[in-house]
Inverse folding.
């Protein structure tokens, strides 16, 4: 096992994507909260439901799916380009001739790093998303601090968090393995490398959405 | 010694190698030459194991390389060094880290032992004081020398060089050629060089394999090149009118 390389990947994926994930999550939560407040206005539904809906929506769907779709664009394309570049510059051939197991050295650390770092990012995204909802609604006096917190603490099912982790692990595996595959088997020059990088994002996104549907069916239906 | 027996290789309908039989001897600089598209890079990739032949056998001394798998294949791989056309140095690693890479992967040396070995190899290729530089900070010739240092760091038995002189000026090319030749003799390595650099052919070609259109067209040493009556070899080596005049003059002096 190449632990040093695995830790480097965890750092690259996790710390490297922290800012963008937080930024997206805060707006994701904020927009969800404002839109629900708009839809619930004038109805009999209590206002504290805004906090409850934002929390569940973020945990079950938005945090794992949106975060992984964004990471497919950021991390996935980067991985495909990095491995594809190594293939084109004969780095992978050089390692193979040396006797290095290139799939174990180049791909496995990325998969392990992704499986460890992406669920943590999703977890952070969920927390920041709920916080985003708070920032968007409480200071603007759409609802009170007490109502939002009450909503965020109501009807909590730990099973939803389990679902979030299942999704994040599956999505992480999809986006890393698809991206590594696209990069590892790239042929040709810089145009093909660009195409491989794009294909990594497109296929990852499609498979993530498909997996999202399948997981929802399996765990919720 | 490496031996190729009846090597055929096709890509789809296109037959690139059409039955190559050749022996590459230890302690000698063995050259594979031929025009672009003749199949010499494919032959080199088959010899080093990056491509599988459609049929035929590769022998590394007494081991049938074509049949090796798993641990035995890895053992042979550790005896192989390769210098790539573009050097294939890892851009994100320094010169020292590049040369040290095989030691990190396959030895249990302490850091000090690794550093000593790296410095020994860099000194051998006349590259002292470049340890902390990145590949992008050194010249093409220096990159080739780092590539050689990395290729020899595990004391290989077999050394492969793909176009070692491409992109280098004639003087640096000679330095690289002489370096490869000296290392080959010092360590009794089986060295196979894929080239179409005529200086290399005439300077270090102890055993030359000339490939034409997928066939082994001619095999001999640099001393036999001048006397050869093979027209394709003559047209390839003495391609320019200037070289043809030189050859005539050399033959007249004989």
């Amino acid at each position: 096992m190449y632990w040093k390389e695995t830790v480097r990947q965890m750092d690259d994926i996790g710390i490297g994507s922290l800012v963008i994930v937080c930024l997206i999550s805060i707006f994701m939560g904020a927009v969800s909260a404002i839109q629900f407040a708009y839809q619930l206005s004038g109805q009999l539904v209590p206002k504290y439901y805004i906090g409850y809906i934002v929390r569940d929506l973020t945990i079950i769907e938005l945090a794992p799916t949106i975060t992984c779709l964004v990471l497919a664009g950021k991390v996935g394309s980067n991985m495909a380009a990095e491995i594809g570049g190594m293939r084109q510059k004969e780095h992978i051939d050089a390692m193979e001739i040396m006797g290095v197991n290139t799939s174990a050295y180049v791909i496995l650390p990325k998969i392990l790093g992704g499986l460890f770092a992406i669920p943590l990012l999703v977890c952070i995204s969920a927390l920041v998303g709920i916080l985003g909802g708070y920032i968007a609604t409480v200071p603007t006096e759409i609802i009170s601090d007490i109502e939002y917190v009450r909503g965020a603490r109501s009807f909590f099912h730990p099973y939803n968090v389990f679902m979030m982790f299942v999704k994040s692990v599956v999505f992480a595996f999809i986006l890393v393995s698809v991206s590594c595959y696209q990069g590892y088997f790239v042929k040709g020059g810089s145009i093909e490398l660009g195409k491989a990088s794009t294909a990594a994002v497109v296929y990852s996104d499609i498979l993530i959405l498909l997996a999202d549907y399948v997981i929802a069916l399996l765990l919720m239906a | 010694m490496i031996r190729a027996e009846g090597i055929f290789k096709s890509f789809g309908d296109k037959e690139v190698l059409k039955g190559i039989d050749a022996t590459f001897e230890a302690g000698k600089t063995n050259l594979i030459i031929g025009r672009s598209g003749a199949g010499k890079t494919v032959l080199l990739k088959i010899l080093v194991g990056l491509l599988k032949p459609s049929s035929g056998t590769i022998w590394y001394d007494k081991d049938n390389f074509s049949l090796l798998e798993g641990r035995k294949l890895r053992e042979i791989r550790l005896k192989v060094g390769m210098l790539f056309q573009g050097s294939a140095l890892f851009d994100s690693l320094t010169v020292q880290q590049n040369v040290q890479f095989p030691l990190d992967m396959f030895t249990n040396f302490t850091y000090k032992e690794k550093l000593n070995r790296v410095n020994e190899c860099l000194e051998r290729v006349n590259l002292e004081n470049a340890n902390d530089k990145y590949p992008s900070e050194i010249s093409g010739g220096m990159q080739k020398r780092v590539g050689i240092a990395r290729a020899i760091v595990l004391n290989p038995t077999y050394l492969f060089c793909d176009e070692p002189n491409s992109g280098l000026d004639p003087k640096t090319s000679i330095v690289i050629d002489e370096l490869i030749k000296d290392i080959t003799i010092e360590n009794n390595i089986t060295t196979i060089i894929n080239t179409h650099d005529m200086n290399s052919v005439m300077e270090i070609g102890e055993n030359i394999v000339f490939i034409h259109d997928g066939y082994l067209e001619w095999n001999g040493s640099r001393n036999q090149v001048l006397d050869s009556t093979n027209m394709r070899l003559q047209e390839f080596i003495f391609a320019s009118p200037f070289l043809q005049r030189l050859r005539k003059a050399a033959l007249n002096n004989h």
Observations:
- The radius of gyration of chain A is 20 Å.
- The helical segments of chain A are 3-40, 49-88, 91-98, 102-137, 145-153, 158-184, 190-220.
